[in-house]
Design goal:
Strand 14 and strand 15 form a beta hairpin. The protein contains eleven helices and 16 strands. It folds into two domains: about 230 residues, DD-peptidase/beta-lactamase superfamily (Beta-lactamase); about 120 residues, 3-Layer(aba) Sandwich (Beta-lactamase). The longest helix is centred in the N-terminal third of the chain and has 16 residues. The chain has about 425 residues and is an alpha+beta fold. The protein has a seven-stranded antiparallel beta sheet, with helices on both faces. Strands 7-6-16 form a three-stranded mixed beta sheet, with no helix packed on it.
């Protein structure tokens, strides 16, 4: 459970302006049926200043999808800290079948030509999404179609090991390090965690991150004892790139444009142990659990006397790693992701704010963040000693601009 809130004034926040966020969310997103509910938290200087649960119970469990990525990235960085891998190591050191990866040149999804990469893919490329990998749901390039045809996805019966084997036979979008593209790279990072540690990804995360942080409700599935806490998931079908199950019904409690795609019942993919442990998008969590993860990040890698990651390692991971200090807009792949592109760089598992004026959002340089496909969000601002988490369940996250709106309102509450 969350610790009690403090008077926002104690940590330099205006209580009336924070309450105004509640009213904005209610009138803009809940009364209109855009979102089924919304839970969010504002923490500053190590104290919770404001919590709001509208439409959800305080202990509700959410599919956090790509907010799994920072957790998996921290896991791989732990192993790098221990000397078991280096950022400059070729990925083929751990996955030998990847030694001969080629790069797409021309053709169709069934008949194509390839070239040699300018250099071999290294571990850093995976953590920064500059690997040349992609996602099949992008539907933006013939290589995306190959992913779909080959079954490169988190699906019942598939495994992380099998996905990695399939990728050995599929060309890269581009030569590693030359562009940025959101991708299955963090799932591959999860596989590296397994190979290097000798543990399954779920066991490793539990032992080295989740249990030390007391994140008892964060896992790859929801067991029967917690089943009634798993929230339904919805999709705005008109703009969703992920595909909507055939026959998915509208929910009269939301609106006719919003389809119920997962009711959280026994048939849900999140209700039983998956065969595919997706470090890129497979976790469920709660506001209280992710609060502990974010507080650890703001505390420079430790919480309640337990160090999860080194201070310098985390500072390094939340620095822009894109070549030449460029932002995402300069990296040539304007595809779906969980961030805007102008003025934003990328570190080792996190987006990194470079220039808020270019990003056109009130923020601080050095803020690091990510989000999930069902419109979940978090950001950590070391300069202001602030972090914010927002949780709902509507795909895709690009349906509505709540991430920018939340930033405008939270920073507007600073006194």
């Amino acid at each position: 459970m969350l610790e009690p809130e403090v008077d926002p004034a104690e940590v330099g926040l205006d209580a009336s302006r924070l309450r105004g966020i509640d009213e904005f969310v209610k009138t803009t997103y809940l009364d209109t049926g855009r979102y089924p509910g919304y839970s969010y938290l504002v923490s500053r200087k190590g104290k919770i200043a404001h919590v709001s649960h509208q439409g959800y119970d305080a202990d509700a469990m959410f599919r956090i999808f790509s907010m799994s990525k920072p957790i998996t990235s921290i896991a791989l960085l732990q192993l790098i800290e221990q000397g078991k891998a280096k950022l400059g190591d070729p990925v083929s050191r751990f996955i030998p079948s990847w030694a001969d990866l080629r790069v797409w040149s021309d053709g169709s999804p069934t008949t194509y030509s390839t070239t040699f990469p300018e250099r071999e893919m290294v571990v850093q490329d995976l953590l920064t999404h500059t690997s040349g990998l992609t996602y099949g749901f992008m539907a933006n390039h013939p290589v995306d179609a190959i992913y779909r045809h080959q079954g490169v996805e988190r699906a019942p019966g598939n495994t992380l090991e099998n996905m990695v084997d399939l990728l050995a036979e599929i060309p890269l979008l581009f030569s590693p390090g030359t562009q940025w593209s959101y991708s299955v790279a963090t799932d591959v990072c999860g596989r590296l965690v397994e190979i290097i540690s000798g543990q399954s990804l779920d066991d490793y995360l539990t032992e080295h991150i989740l249990e030390p942080l007391e994140m008892a409700d964060t896992a790859f599935y929801v067991d029967d004892a917690k089943a009634d806490r798993l929230t339904p998931n919805y999709a705005l079908a008109s703009v969703s790139p992920f595909g909507v199950p055939e026959g998915a019904p509208p929910d009269p409690n939301v609106n006719e444009e919003t389809l119920l795609i997962d009711d959280g019942g026994e048939s849900s993919a999140f209700r039983s142990p998956p065969t595919f442990l997706s470090g890129g998008g497979g976790l469920v969590s709660t506001l209280a659990d992710y609060h502990r993860f974010c507080q650890m990040l703001l505390n420079k890698g430790q919480l309640d006397g337990k160090r999860i990651i080194g201070r310098k390692t985390l500072e390094f991971a939340t620095t822009n790693h894109l070549p030449g200090g460029r932002d995402l807009a300069a990296m040539g792949q304007s595809v779906f992701s969980e961030t805007s592109y102008e003025g934003v760089g990328f570190g080792l598992g996190f987006s990194v704010m470079l220039d808020p004026t270019q990003a056109q959002v009130i923020s601080s340089p050095g803020e690091f963040a990510w989000g999930g496909a069902a419109s979940t969000l978090f950001w950590v601002d070391p300069e202001e000693e602030l972090f914010v988490i927002g949780l709902t369940q509507l795909m895709p996250s690009s349906a509505y601009p709540i991430r920018q709106e939340m930033k405008q309102m939270v920073y507007g509450a600073l006194t």
